[in-house]
Structures are given as structure tokens and as C-alpha cells.
């Protein structure tokens, strides 16, 4: 799949650098040629010898190395690849890239290049969440840099949260998506997915039966067509697809904020089963049984994310797709919902228990747009996703 593709792999100085050794192997297995560049800090984590042995190529390390410059100058090196991959992209490297510093081989290559760049960030969770890193991320995205990960999970530093570098195969999927120019190459698409959890107290929450399967399938299909996908997901049963930028959230309010951060996009697909209500004042202590009787929960309305984005006066995505989960009069309810929300298309489905759709592997969909309704046969959720992604590609091309 990657035969005859040239990857310039910049390895930054983080503990995740060990995964980059496996990444080199995976890329070469797929026929790609990998030219490795190590930062000084990276050499504290992996040796030039192991990197060079796996890549089967010389390792570039020093901007002022006359041998390096004589063989291939840094300007030529920066432009000789089909894609530059920065993995791990440390907080330091992201900061340099965002502010245009060029004081070593890696940062100079990144400044001198006109080749697309893909970053796989890896850092401590606090460093990732730091406003400076988030600012740099926004800037780099605006500059056209693409991202895969970071993932959430246990970290080498003993903490938990977003900041783990994506696994080598996820990075490979992102590279493939970026290099295989699909019809959505260069398009940025937002997908919301999964349920939301609305806290009652620190241990209890209100949720719904959405597994996140359809949203994950849509995100995967869009990425396969070459889109840059920002995948904002509530706590779903199914894992997020590889090759997309995952933004994990819990509540509707967090999902709404994450959607705002992701804008602008070329298309938004709102597949999440967002809770309509939250508990107005969730307790910060566990509610106890009391002799005074049962607790009374008061609800407040959550933001309607789809409606808000559909009706944005400035920055509305050119194509907005909603989903409608109905249990009766599917077409009438979904048609009314499309007009009420102001979105372009509604993917309507019958989620009444007898259909087995919610939480199941199949879906029966009616696509409602301004030009009428289109009924699809009962299909696997992956197939529904591929059809929808193809329609989105068609709409964005036209
Ligand atoms: N949606 C949203 N934010 C909400 C509620 C729903 O973005 N707070 C989006 C869903 O992601 C979906 C669409 O709106 O794309 C319709 O969701 P659905 O639950 O079917 O409809 P509701 O708006 O909740 O309307 P109702 O409860 O009347 O069916």
C-alpha cells in the first residue's frame, strides 16, 4: 500500500521513541522507504544504530555535520519525502514548529519543507492539557499539520489521561490515509459519536444505550477516503478507529466545547446520542440513603450541538449531517427534525427495541435531504458508513 512512498521520520526525545522503532518496521513491511532523523534528546531514548539498522538508511542527526550536508543537504532532505512524520512529537517539538524555530536538524527540516507533515504527539497528560500545548496544536492545525492521537491511557510517567503516542499501526493507518489521495484528501471532517454520561454524583450517571458503533464506522470510512477526521466521542463500547484524531469526552457540555474547538471543518457528522438533559446540580459527594425519603433529581437542558452548529451565522460547516433515532413515524419525525435543527441531511433510523439496531451491528437507514428521502436496505453499520462517506465525498466535490 505504501510501496515507493518515502517517509522522513523525525523522532523526538520522549519515552515513546521506542515505538518509533516498530513504526519503522511496519512502514518498511508495507514497502515504504524511511529516512530517519533523530533529535539530540531522542538519542537519549533510542540509539542511532538501532534506528539506522531498522530503516536500512543513514540517520540524520546534526545540522552542522559536513558529511550529512555533503551527502544530502538539509533543504533537499526536507523536500525529498512524500510525507514528514514526527513521532513522537514532543511538547518541545510542537512548540518549535508552532513558533517557527529552526535551531537544530529536526526543526530546520520542518521549517524548510513544503511536504505535508503528520504529527503523533506524546507527552505527559499535564503537558498535553497545558494551554501552551493546546495553543500550539490549534496553530499547527491551522498551518495544515495533521495529527494522529494522542491516545488516552496509562502513561510511562505513572499518570493517566491523554498523552500516549498512538500505536505504530494507528500511525501507519494515518499515513496511508494521508498518502493515498482519496476523494476526501485535504478535507477536514468532524464526527461526534457514542453516548454522553451525565453525572448524578461522583459515582452515578445517566446514560443511554448507544454503543458508538455507527459513529466509529462513519469516522473510519471518512478517514479511508482521505479525510482528516476529528472524532469527538463519549464513553463508547467500541474502540475509536485508527487514523483519526480522537477527542474523548463524557458529558454533552464537554462534547459541545470539543466541537467548537474542532471548527472550522468542511463537514460535520453528528452521530452521537447526546443526552438531552443533565442533572441540574450534580452532587460533588455520593448521595446517601436517607430517612427523609427518595432523592429528587432536577433536570436542566443540555446544549443541542447539532442545532447550534447548523445555525451558526459564521463558520457553519458547508455540509452538516445529523442522525435521528426514532421509535415511531420515523420519516415524519426525522423530516421535521431536519427542518427544526437546520442541518442539511438527516440519517434517520428506527431504534425501537424490536429492530435490534441500538447496540447491534446492523442499521436500516433513511437519508433525508432537501431533495427528498432515500431508503437504504438493512446493512452492516460499516456498509452504511461507507455509503454515507461516499455521499459526503460526492457532495463536497460538487
Ligand atoms: N444532538 C445534538 N445535541 C443534543 C441532542 C441531539 O447534537 N443535545 C444531535 C444528535 O447527535 C443527532 C440529532 O441531534 O444527530 C438528533 O438526535 P435525537 O436524539 O434523535 O433527537 P433530539 O434532538 O434529542 O430530539 P427528540 O428527543 O425530540 O427526538
Keywords:
398 residues, alpha/beta, Rossmann fold, 2 domains, 8-stranded mixed beta sheet, 14 helices, 34% helix, globular, binds cytidine-5'-triphosphate
Strand and helix map with partners:
Blueprint: E1 6-11, H1 17-29, E2 33-38, H2 48-55, H3 66-71, H4 74-79, E3 83-89, H5 91-99, H6 105-112, E4 117-121, H7 125-129, H8 131-142, E5 146-147, E6 151-154, E7 160-164, H9 168-179, E8 188-193, E9 198-199, E10 205-206, H10 213-224, E11 228-233, E12 245-248, H11 252-262, E13 267-270, E14 277-279, E15 299-301, H12 305-310, E16 319-326, H13 330-341, E17 345-350, E18 362-363, E19 365-369, E20 372-375, E21 379-380, H14 381-397
Parallel strand pairs: 1-2, 1-3, 3-4, 4-5, 8-11, 8-13, 11-12, 13-16, 16-17
Antiparallel strand pairs: 6-7, 9-10, 14-15, 17-19, 18-21, 19-20
Helix pairs in contact: 1-2, 1-9, 5-8, 10-14
The structure holds cytidine-5'-triphosphate (CTP).
Report on the architecture of this protein.
This protein has 398 residues and is α/β, with parallel strands linked by helices. The protein has 14 helices and 21 strands. The chain has an eight-stranded mixed sheet, with helices on both faces. It has a five-stranded parallel sheet with strand order 2-1-3-4-5, with helices on both faces. The chain is globular and about 75 Å long. Bound molecules: cytidine-5'-triphosphate (CTP). The site of cytidine-5'-triphosphate (CTP) has 14 residues, from helix 12 and strand 16.
Amino acid at each position: 500500500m505504501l510501496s515507493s512512498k518515502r517517509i522522513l521520520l523525525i523522532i523526538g526525545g520522549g519515552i515513546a521513541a521506542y515505538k518509533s522503532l516498530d513504526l519503522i518496521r511496519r512502514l518498511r513491511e508495507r514497502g515504504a522507504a524511511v529516512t530517519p532523523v533523530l533529535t539530540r534528546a531522542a538519542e537519549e531514548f533510542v540509539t542511532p544504530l538501532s534506528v539506522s539498522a531498522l530503516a536500512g538508511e543513514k540517520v540524520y542527526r546534526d545540522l552542522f555535520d559536513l558529511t550529512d550536508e555533503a551527502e544530502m543537504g538539509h533543504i533537499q532532505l526536507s523536500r525529498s519525502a512524500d510525507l514528514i512524520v514526527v513521532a513522537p512529537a514532543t511538547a518541545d517539538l510542537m512548540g518549535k514548529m508552532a513558533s517557527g524555530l529552526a535551531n537544530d536538524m529536526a526543526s530546520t527540516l520542518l521549517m524548510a519543507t513544503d511536504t505535508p507533515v503528520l504529527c503523533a504527539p506524546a507527552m505527559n497528560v499535564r503537558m498535553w492539557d497545558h494551554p501552551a500545548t493546546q495553543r500550539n496544536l490549534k496553530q499547527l492545525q491551522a498551518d495544515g499539520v495533521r495529527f494522529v492521537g494522542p491516545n488516552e491511557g496509562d502513561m510511562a510517567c505513572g499518570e493517566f489521561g491523554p498523552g500516549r503516542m498512538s500505536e505504530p499501526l494507528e500511525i501507519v493507518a494515518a499515513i496511508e490515509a494521508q498518502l493515498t489521495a482519496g476523494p476526501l484528501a485535504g478535507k477536514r471532517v468532524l464526527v461526534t459519536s457514542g453516548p454522553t454520561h451525565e453525572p448524578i454524583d461522583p459515582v452515578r450517571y445517566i446514560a443511554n444505550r448507544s454503543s458508538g458503533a455507527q459513529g466509529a464506522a462513519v469516522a473510519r470510512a471518512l478517514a479511508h477516503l482521505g479525510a482528516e477526521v476529528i472524532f469527538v466521542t463519549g464513553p463508547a463500547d467500541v474502540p475509536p478507529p485508527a487514523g483519526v484524531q480522537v477527542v474523548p469526552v463524557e458529558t454533552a457540555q464537554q462534547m459541545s466545547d470539543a466541537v467548537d474547538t474542532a471548527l472550522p471543518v468542511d463537514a460535520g457528522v453528528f452521530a452521537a446520542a447526546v443526552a438531552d438533559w443533565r442533572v441540574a446540580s450534580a452532587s460533588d459527594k455520593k448521595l446517601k440513603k436517607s430517612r427523609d425519603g427518595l432523592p429528587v433529581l432536577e433536570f436542566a437542558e443540555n446544549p443541542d450541538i447539532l442545532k447550534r452548529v447548523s445555525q451558526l451565522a459564521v463558520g457553519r460547516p458547508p455540509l452538516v449531517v445529523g442522525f435521528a433515532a426514532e421509535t415511531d413515524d420515523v420519516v415524519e419525525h426525522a423530516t421535521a427534525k431536519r427542518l427544526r435543527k437546520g442541518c442539511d441531511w438527516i440519517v434517520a433510523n428506527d431504534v425501537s427495541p424490536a429492530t435490534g439496531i441500538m447496540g447491534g451491528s446492523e442499521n436500516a437507514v433513511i437519508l433525508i435531504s432537501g431533495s427528498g428521502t432515500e431508503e437504504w436496505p438493512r446493512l452492516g453499520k460499516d456498509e452504511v458508513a461507507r455509503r454515507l462517506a461516499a455521499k459526503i465525498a460526492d457532495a463536497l466535490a460538487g
